[in-house]
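dumping the sequnces here before i forget
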Amino acid sequence: MTVAAPPALRTVALVGNPNTGKSTLFNRLSGLRQRVGNYPGVTVERRVGRAHLADGEEVRVIDLPGMRSLAPRSPDERIAVDVLLGRRADTPAPDAAVVILNALHLEIGLYLLLEVRELGVPVVACLNISDEAERAGITIDREALSREMGVPVVRTVATRGEGMDELKAEIARATLLPRVPPVPLPEPLHGMCDRLRGAWPGTPGDAEIADALIEGPEADGIPDGVREALRKERGIETGGRLRDLVVGARRRRIAEICGLAIRRAPPDPRRDWTRRLDRTFTHPVAGYAIFLAVMALVFVAMFWLAQFPMDWIKSGIAALQRGVVAGFGPGDLSSLLSDGVLEGVGAVVVFLPQIALLFIFLGILEDTGYLSRAVLLLDRPMAAAGLSGRGFVPLLGSMACAVPGVMGTRVIPDVRERLVTIFVAPLMTCSARLPVYSCLIGVVILAAPWVQALVLLGLYVLGAGSAFTLAWVLRRARRRPARTDFLVELPPYRWPTWRTTGIQLWQRVRAFLRRAGTVILGIMVLLWFLEHHPRSADPARQLEESYAGRAGKIVEPALKPLGHNWKTGIGILTAFFSAREVYVGTMGTVYGVEGAADDPTELKARMQAERDPATGRPHWTLAAGLSLMIFFVYAMLCSSTVVTVFRESGSWRWALLQLGVMTGLAWVAAFAVYRAASAAGWGA
Amino acid sequence: MTETLDRTPAGARVVIDGVDGPLGTRLAELGLLPGAEVEVVQAIPLGGPIVLDREGFLLAIRRDDARSIRVRGSKP
Amino acid sequence: MIQSLLALALVAVTSGWLGVRALRLLRRGGACSGCALAPLRPRGRN
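..and the predicted 3d for all of it:
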């Protein structure tokens, strides 16, 4: 008697245009049972989850990046196409695809639906955002649509969870259907693609080759080795005719289907809302003023609101420290845990509320649709710096972390422009700098929270401004930038979806805590050792005589002109080899080593109490604080970024040049600020 | 009379005559084919992008790119 | 003292683990968990 093996886990891929509520739907299907990571080697986010279908069985759900068509125009879209076609070794070929359509713009989304259906994969069409469409007076005949497209059509409202049961039922049915052979392209395109496929690097889909044939061999983004073959194959055919053959034909079919399936009531008042708001938000004066005001508001909230949870965390850590010392009694282990681990990791974790607030606000801005308008407002100013629209996203991403930002520059086809973008990306204020700025501002800017917030905003603006200025300087050394590619959809304004924002926030928070609990914890342990050995006879001089202290002393001469000493040296060194926020953790341990083990005074107070041994005056003056802040704005204190730049640019020279230039810039700027601030009397 | 999209005043409805270059396919996929009617909503200040409305779908393109889109006035 | 031994053991294990991570980082280039702070995507990005 044999027991049947359980059926292998089936896979369904979610595809759709951007702004179709795909992520919300994905969250509805898989809840928190999702894993977010990266496709190996690229910055493309990979989201895989599990969904429970009606009869209790599970199905794997892959949320693919949004795309307009199967002709890939960015690494994102290329990965999505590869996954759909089952060409990736690391991802199972989907048994079915759910194409998510925005019911408000059905004609647009049907293009992708047609393409995906032609692939031969079983398809379920999902008409999302139906509530808004119905409110706008749009009636869609689902049966007609289903008949004409040849696929089941489910009505959903992902934000409210409507239609999910029907969707799951259709998915279950679809995953059992067999794949059919893909519909071939019309001649002469089909023959051309077949002949060209061999010459192409990698495994391109038909859509990609067809797109190249349509755009012509001179277009951007075509692999170099292929241009000649492309030219020959194309012969005398024009892009226009080829385009009409494929794209035009599809659009005509879609127009036909829409005529049968969609009925529109007169224009909806919601559009007027969006129009009216846009008139203000993109006004030449009010628009920019509002943008700055919004940014300022975010920062103020981050400082003021965050206080409360931060205080709570601080007292929690202090309680833990007391507990450890009480429980273990005096000794090395207790010191390691209390002064090393808890002090150091605690100093970083305490900033979690601020980072969480940052992500909440940015998430809201994106959700409401405002961020797209901001992208528009900033496009032209960016172009002045020689950066293209494609460069904006990697730079914006660098504000979370420069590593994926630098990797994200792969979307820039022009090599020289790409190198410039890589070069300036680390100047965008990454989230790791936030704890450092917060800490320093707290120590030396003794003013109302809104003043502190302004200083923080100023540092952010300085970072971004320097990035653009540097790009502009580097632009002088190149020929004029290549053609840009800019097509931005402006979604209608809407209230943010708390659920999606919540899930995203949770993922970010978890990532932050994991980083603190692993890498940073590890560094703190190591650091404890370096700070407490070799053993000193005099406990007050322990830090100075330790390995860490000695290392700090070596770099001290370079730091003295900036108003700093060997203790800061230790902080900078550890930050470079791990992460910027480790600076704060290090300061925690550095000042913890000095104080008594159960001294409840917080880091800020201890830093403020620091006195220069020679002059007896406070070390952390406004001048010293500002100079270090400026130093952090420019310095490349992140070895991960250096390594990533090396990999992405392919040259050690570029990476080292960047490191050298940034370090030099940081030193000079900090020096200038220190001198100026001291002269202004802020150095006493 | 044909002119180009970048010279079309805000608020005007025009019909697309043709698009030169690679932009054509991207726009075509979105439904902005020759024969499609589109409204110019506004131009972003500082020489910024132009916002278009195609049957309720709002999108923005660079002014430079708009220069390669030939349009003609639509019949009211 | 037991405490010193335990502390040193912890340090040794941690250093080893950090070393392995550093090597992996160098080989894969930027695989730090900062990537989990994935970049924001402005809507309408193409």
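The mean pLDDT of chain C is 64.
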